[in-house]
Write a structure and sequence with these properties.
mainly beta, Immunoglobulin-like, nine-stranded mixed β-sheet
Length: 154
């Protein structure tokens, strides 16, 4: 078992990198779906005891927040850690009076991750931008966030 959450360290380097900024679209008066795919690096685990969340700042209303869904349990401690999690999905309502165009969406992540090889857990934060295209349609293109745990000295 890895250490308790009280042993969490906040890292200065950004361990959350958008390898694909994704995009979503909708017509005015419809709902856009934004999908976020979290891709952990080698030995990176999701700590179930932490309150990991992703917040979406959107142009047409209040910020939306989602926790992480339960994922594939880590065999060595399936009660407390996941190896992977399903996509996080946000439904973004577009008002009927919205003008066609590209609108920025900001994702802010605070995740509780563990490094299985170092037996250490960390609270990591990251921010990335994506786009909502109003006036066009098409399947959502997921935002892909690559997760790593850099050395605590970085």
């Amino acid at each position: 078992m890895l250490p308790e959450l009280s042993a969490v360290v906040l890292l200065a380097a950004s361990p959350i990198q958008a390898t694909d900024p994704g995009a979503t679209s909708a017509q005015p008066g419809k709902t856009a779906q934004l999908r976020i795919s979290l891709r952990p690096g080698p030995d990176v685990l999701f700590n179930r005891r932490g309150s990991s969340q992703i917040q979406l700042e959107q142009p047409f209303g209040r910020a939306l927040t989602r926790g992480l869904p339960r994922g594939e349990p880590w065999p060595e401690d399936p009660t407390h850690y996941d190896r992977s999690v399903p996509e996080v999905v946000f439904d973004v309502p577009v008002p009927s009076g919205a003008r066609p165009g590209r609108y920025p969406l900001t994702l802010r992540s605070e995740l509780y991750l563990c490094d299985a090889s170092r037996h250490a857990c960390f609270r990591v934060k990251g921010e990335t931008e994506t786009v909502l295209e109003v006036g066009s349609t098409g399947p959502p293109h997921p935002v892909v966030l690559q997760l790593s745990i850099p050395d605590a000295s970085s």
